[in-house]
Each structure stands twice: as C-alpha cells, then as structure tokens.
C-alpha cells in the first residue's frame, strides 16, 4: 500500500478542524435561538459569548462537556417551542418546559430529537393537534403534555416500545384511545378529555378512572405502584417535596427550612455528603410504589446513589432514627446497607449505593433481557437471599425488625453481579400485616393476631416463598389478575408438578428432582398459616442442601454472584 504524503495529512487536518469548531458553534447558536423564541424576561446567561457547560447556563446540565438536559420550569416563558433549533443538540436526553405560558403548536420537528428520553411540556398553553412525529421518538420513556389546550387525536404512541409514562389529562383530546402496552406503563392519565369509544383493556394495571372527569394521577399497580390501586393525594408531601414532580432533580421547597441533617452511616468516601448535595444533583425517577418513591441521584463526584423517599411516617423521628441505627449495626454481604438517612417530621429519606445491574424482577421478566438466567444461577440467588434474611432475622429478632416488603424488585445486583437485598427494615411492624398476604385472598390476615414480631418475620418467609415461585416458574406475581400462588397450588394438586417449572429451565436440562425439592420449600414458605411456615434459618439450611447436591454434579456457583452467559 502506498503511503499518504505528509502534506496531504496536514491539509486534511487543516480542513477538518474548522468543521468541528463550526459544528460546536452551530449548536450554541441553535440553543440561543431556541431561548429567544421562548421570549424569556432575560436570556438567563444563554448567549454566543459564553459556553453552556463551562459557564453553567441556567437550566442546562452537561455530561462530558455536552448538553444533556435542559430544564426551564416556571420561568414565565411566553413564546413558542422551536424544535428545529433544540433538536440540533444531538446529546439532549431531557427537555422540560413545565409550568410556563408557551403557546402555539408542538411542532412536528420534535421528532428529530432522537435521543430524548423525557419530554415534559405540561402546564403551558400549547394548542392544536399532536404531531405524528412524536411516535418516532424511539428512546422516549416519559411524556407529559397535561394541562394544555391540545386537541385532536393521539398519534401512534404505542409504537414507542419503552414508554413508561404518558400523562395527557386536562386537554381537549378526542377520538379513540390507542392500544397502549399497559404491562409496561407505570403512569398513565387521560382524564378530562373528549375521548370516545370503548375503554381499552387495562390489564389490571390501572383503574378506569384515568378516563373520567376527575383529576387523577394513577400509578401503576404492582411493581412500581400501589398494589391496592390507591391514588396519591394531590395535597400530599410528595408534591411539596418535588421529587415526584421532577424526575431529573431533587429540588425541595422545604429544604430551606429543614433543620435536620443527613446522617452518614457507612462508606467513608461519603462522609462529606450533605443534604444539599442530594437536592442539587440531577436525579432520575426509577419507580413509585405503595411505600415510597425511588430515585437515582448523580453526584458531581461521579458517584451514583439510590434515594428512597418513604411515604410511611407512622414512626416518630426518634423511633425512626433508633430503628435505622439498629439496622446499621447488623451487616451481611447479601444485604445492602444504607449509606445515610434524613429524617424530619415531614420527610424520611434513605440513601443507598446505586446498584447498576438491575433487579431480580428485571432479570426474570425484562422484555429486553440478553442474559441466560440458568438453573444454577437461580439456585445460587435463592440460597443467597435465604442466607441474608436468616442472618438479619436472627440479629434483629429481639427488636421485631424484619424486611417487611420483600419482593423481586428489592433484590439488586451490583457492578460485579453480586446479589444484595435492599430496603431492609423500612416497613414498620404495624403495616407488615398487609405486605404480601393480599396476593392470596384466602390467606389474608390468617392467624396473625398472635406474637406480632414473630408474625412479621413469618411474612418475610411468605414473601421469600413467592420469590422462589418466581425463580421456578419465571412467571409474574400479578398478571391480569393471575395469582401465582393459587396457580402453583392448583397445578401441584393435579399432580402436574413438571408443568410448574419455567420452560427455559426444562430446556437446559436442569435437575427435575432438585427443582421439585426447591418447590417443596416454596410451598412450606407460603403455607396459609404463619405458624406452620419454617423459619428463614431452616429455609436457608434446606436450600443449601439442594445447592450442595447441585454442586457435586456440576460447576460450582459462587453464592450471591450472578452468572450471565
């Protein structure tokens, strides 16, 4: 091959360098034009003589010197949305213009913002129809167009396969409602519109009230929502705190008057962490459930934290502090310890290290799972959960502190794919009666009137039994009213035991004998009578026996370490 003369390379470098500079200039110019079209009272520092990242333009968050998020909420912006300009920012993931007075159409050019994961336009004066190009935003996770003057039919939004939130209440939208995937959606609201036709099959995830004339905000039932279908109050502390209304920051209107401090429990590297650091850092809403909301918080240091805001305020401040300090004294490698907590009369926050490899629920039920979750790995996870729970039950038994909310979404995997039980002890004893028994209607509150601390540990055993069934069957705990526990009992009664097991396990040739033995343990755990359920120490010993038998004839599995193939 002939060598390229050095003078040719120099010319190419000379020609390419100005192109890179001019492209950066074009993006800055597009941002300034975008702001000018919004008709702000001032330009908030957005000008051509400064840099959006280095000079920290108002509302702009950067990642690796590229504009990542633009949040311009409540700034009395009265102009129009120039999508052609803003979509020139190829790294933009979040755009929020909530609670302004922006008018006009939502332009079709918004479909060019291909990297958007969150688009928040609520509380403005947008009018006209929604552009079909919205359905081209393939990365979009959250879309909020509520409280505007929008009209016409909805575009083909179900085409966006990963959409988790769609809020469009309080508009003038009409026509038929598209067939959304209600298994995936976590938030969905179309109330106060003019839709016609039949109500879609909500797959038992939402109440039909989301189409009514009432102003509702219904969260997904089950994993990320209230399993009882309760809707959050519009006057709750959650709205005041700001966490639920902003999925990319943790700004709190109460922070200015907060007198408590963040109590650091573990991790010496976090000793300098302050409550204000959590409030000012970018945050992403990971889920909202019956007992609170969970956020991923990205600190300036590069550390990622998971912050749980607890809804239940039954414990006094002092009791909550004592409870957290007792939990902090008990450590096990399979139980995720809290990094810190924050406690006032109005707020309860728990801070954990963020676990980047997802949850057991995602591993079992995720629609885009590229990993093989084989029998050996499932057995290893079951053994590790049992071992961790047994240890915590033993050490905290005298205080009556159980997990109280054990489920597959609370079984997390760290960067090394080691398993950790999260959120141990966040549920107080009085509420634990309702944690898992509603999953089996005939079992609800059965024989729970005795020794309350004893009973609450037995609810953990029941919950663990449900997780074992998930591991063995690969099925969801709740699926269109489908009761996993009842189904397993019915199959076992008919002596179709082999039909219980996940086909993936059968196809890999997993030992049917050992799967049946693990199923027997699960059935002991979900016994309708708490007094008849084994302790977690007994459960852990039984599972360890199965695991040792498995390891004799196959490759050993590191307890707590997940094997991804």
TrEMBL record:
ATP binds at residue 308. It is found in: Membrane; Secreted, Cell wall. Its main location: membrane. One of its GO terms (molecular function) is protein kinase activity. Residues 1-22 form the signal peptide. One of its GO terms (cellular component) is membrane. This is Protein kinase domain-containing protein. It comes from Juglans regia. The lineage of its organism: Eukaryota, Viridiplantae, Streptophyta, Embryophyta, Tracheophyta.
């Amino acid at each position: 091959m002939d060598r390229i003369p050095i003078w040719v390379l120099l010319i190419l470098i000379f020609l390419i360098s100005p192109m890179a500079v001019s492209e950066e200039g074009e993006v800055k110019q597009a941002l300034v034009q975008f702001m000018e079209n919004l008709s702000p009272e001032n330009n908030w520092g957005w000008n051509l003589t400064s840099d959006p990242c280095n000079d920290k333009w108002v509302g702009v968050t950067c990642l690796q010197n590229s504009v990542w998020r633009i949040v311009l909420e409540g700034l009395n912006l009265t102009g129009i949305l120039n999508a052609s300009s803003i979509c020139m920012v190829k790294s933009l993931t979040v755009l929020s213009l909530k609670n302004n007075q922006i008018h006009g159409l939502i332009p079709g050019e918004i479909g060019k913002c291909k990297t958007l994961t969150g688009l928040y336009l609520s509380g403005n004066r947008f009018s006209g129809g929604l552009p079909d190009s919205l359905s081209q935003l393939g990365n979009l996770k959250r879309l909020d167009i509520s409280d505007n003057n929008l009209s016409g039919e909805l575009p083909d939004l179900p085409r966006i396969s990963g959409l988790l939130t769609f809020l469009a209440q309080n508009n003038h939208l009409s026509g038929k409602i598209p067939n959304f995937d209600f298994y995936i959606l976590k938030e969905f609201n179309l109330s106060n519109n003019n839709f016609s036709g039949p109500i879609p099959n909500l797959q038992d995830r939402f109440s039909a009230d989301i189409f009514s004339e009432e102003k509702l905000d219904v969260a997904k039932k089950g994993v990320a929502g209230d399993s009882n279908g309760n809707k959050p109050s519009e006057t709750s502390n959650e709205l005041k705190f700001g966490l639920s209304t902003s999925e990319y920051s943790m700004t709190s209107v109460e922070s200015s008057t907060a007198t408590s401090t963040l109590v650091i429990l573990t991790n010496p590297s976090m000793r300098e962490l302050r409550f204000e650091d959590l409030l000012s850092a970018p945050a992403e809403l990971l889920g909202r459930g019956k007992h609170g909301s969970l956020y991923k918080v990205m600190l300036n240091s590069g550390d990622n934290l998971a912050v749980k805001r607890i809804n239940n305020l039954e414990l006094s401040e002092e009791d909550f502090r004592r409870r957290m300090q007792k939990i902090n004294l008990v450590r096990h490698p399979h139980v995720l310890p809290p990094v810190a907590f924050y406690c006032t009369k109005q707020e309860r926050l728990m801070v954990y290290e963020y676990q980047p490899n997802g949850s057991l629920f995602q591993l079992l039920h995720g629609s885009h799972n590229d990993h093989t979750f084989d029998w050996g790995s499932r057995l290893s996870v079951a053994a590790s959960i049992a071992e961790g729970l047994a240890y915590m039950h033993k050490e905290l038994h005298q205080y009556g502190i159980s997990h109280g909310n054990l489920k597959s979404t609370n079984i997390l995997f760290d960067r090394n794919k080691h398993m950790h039980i999260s959120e141990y002890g966040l549920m107080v004893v009085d509420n634990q009666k309702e944690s898992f028994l509603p999953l089996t209607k005939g079992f609800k509150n059965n024989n729970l009137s005795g020794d309350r601390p004893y009973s609450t540990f037995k609810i953990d055993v029941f919950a663990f039994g449900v997780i074992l069934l998930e591991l063995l069957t690969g099925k969801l705990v709740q699926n269109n009213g489908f009761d996993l526990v009842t189904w397993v009992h019915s199959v076992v009664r008919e002596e179709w035991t082999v039909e219980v097991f996940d086909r993936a396990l059968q196809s890999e040739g997993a030992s049917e004998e050992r799967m049946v033995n693990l199923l027997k343990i699960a059935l002991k755990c979900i016994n309708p009578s708490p007094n008849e359920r084994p302790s977690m120490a007994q459960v852990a010993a039984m599972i360890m026996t199965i695991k040792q038998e498995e390891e004799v004839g196959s490759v050993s599995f590191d307890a707590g370490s997940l094997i991804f193939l």
